[in-house]
């Protein structure tokens, strides 16, 4: 998502609050070390798990093993929420990304994503690309998913603000 429509919700914001800019929101997504993924089980119960994610090309990307609960849930319902931020009340910015998760299998994009993971975590997350998945020496294949946001919420703390970023129509 680039150049979204940005609005502030005055119902949940301090009277003097300004909307959080898209660049500040995107910076939180780009730099987050942990992101929490929420999926929905087939019986409707939520499933929440922490993971590492990469922001690239206007989408938030994450991985999962094909047999993990995340993958099972996504096969039935691709709609997810990814959340990151700080565990403080009076400082920082919390960000929520909502949208459908789609599999990434393109070798060129997977290569760029593998490089992004390696760079973001100083070589601690090293993936090779093969057969439309990530591979490493820790376990089996890792499916890669992208979430193109349908909505991003940014919650400013200290001066409380509730900002909504949505894609522009026609893009």
UniProtKB/TrEMBL annotation:
This is Pyridoxamine 5'-phosphate oxidase family protein. Residues 24-152 form the Pyridoxamine 5'-phosphate oxidase N-terminal domain. It holds the Pfam family PNPOx_N. Residues 1-10 have a biased composition (Polar residues). Residues 1-22 are annotated as: Disordered. It comes from the Bacteria. Keywords: Oxidoreductase. It comes from Promicromonospora vindobonensis.
């Amino acid at each position: 998502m680039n150049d979204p429509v940005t609005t502030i919700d005055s119902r949940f914001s301090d009277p003097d609050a300004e909307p959080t800019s898209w660049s500040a929101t995107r910076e939180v997504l780009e730099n987050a070390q942990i992101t929490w993924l929420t999926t929905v089980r087939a019986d409707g119960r939520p499933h929440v798990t922490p993971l590492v994610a990469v922001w690239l090309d206007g989408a938030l990307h994450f991985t999962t093993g094909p047999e993990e609960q995340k993958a099972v849930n996504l096969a039935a319902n691709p709609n997810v929420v990814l959340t990151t931020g700080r565990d403080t009340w009076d400082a920082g910015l919390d960000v929520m990304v909502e949208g459908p998760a789609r599999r990434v299998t393109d070798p060129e994009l997977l290569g760029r994503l593998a490089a992004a993971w390696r760079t973001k975590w100083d070589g601690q997350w090293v993936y090779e690309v093969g057969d439309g998945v990530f591979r490493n020496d820790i376990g089996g294949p890792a499916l890669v998913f992208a979430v193109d946001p349908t909505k991003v919420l940014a919650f400013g703390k200290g001066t409380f603000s509730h900002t909504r970023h949505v894609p522009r129509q026609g893009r």
